[in-house]
Amino acid sequence: MKTLKTVLFSMLLSTFLFSCSKDDDNNNNNNTGNGTMTAKVDGANFNASLAVQAIITSGVCSFAGTGSDGQINVAIPSYTGPGTYAIGSTSFATATYALTTSPFTAYSASAVIGSGSITITSDTGGFLEGTFSFSAVNNTGGTLVTKNITDGSFRIKLTI
């Protein structure tokens, strides 16, 4: 469980660090100029209008998007290129949905809890593109609470 918390903390920290980039290419995809990420969280629309970031480095592909009330973080630690990666399997892919409004709560999908999939359709031309869906769980307080993230799609400029 300590490893899971470390991975989740690292994903959240990297998202906040990446969102402070001074690069502004003004491509008007969203407020950050880095791309788009949309999904449905328990059926409600999610739009990463505040920050989106993606990076592929040392065999790890990660991307994140922050909206007005939440943040989605995805990491594929054994990334080998475009394809489908299962969450909750030996690929060790993880995904997190975190509320950015009170009560601040994180819901996780990993090899330990939750499930889902990430499909990378392209990582060329300086952009990462694909789809995702996952069922994430918050297991604090003695009660398991699940958030279903569906219809996720993204096209995000890769950070170099």
Q: How does the SSE layout of this entry go?
A:
Elements: H1 2-18, E1 35-41, E2 44-47, E3 51-57, E4 60-66, E5 70-76, E6 83-87, E7 94-99, E8 106-109, E9 115-122, E10 127-138, E11 145-157
Antiparallel strand pairs: 1-2, 1-11, 3-4, 4-5, 5-7, 6-9, 7-8, 9-10, 10-11
Summarize the structure.
The chain is mainly beta. The chain has one helix spanning 2-18; strands at 35-41, 44-47, 51-57, 60-66, 70-76, 83-87, 94-99, 106-109, 115-122, 127-138, 145-157. The longest helix has 17 residues, at 2-18.
- Sheet with most strands: 6 strands, antiparallel
The helical percent reads 10-25%
- Can you tell me the number of structural domains? 1
Strand order of the largest sheet: 2-1-11-10-9-6
Radius of gyration: 14 Å
Q: Tell me what portion of residues adopts beta-strand conformation.
A: over 45%
Taking the alpha carbons of the first and last residues, their distance comes to 31 Å
Query: Number of DSSP strands?
Result: 11
User: Whole-number average pLDDT?
Assistant: 82
Poorly predicted tracts of residues: 1-32
**Which secondary-structure class do the elements indicate?**
mainly beta
Which series of helices and strands comes N to C?
HEEEEEEEEEEE
Net shape: globular
Count of DSSP-assigned helices: 1
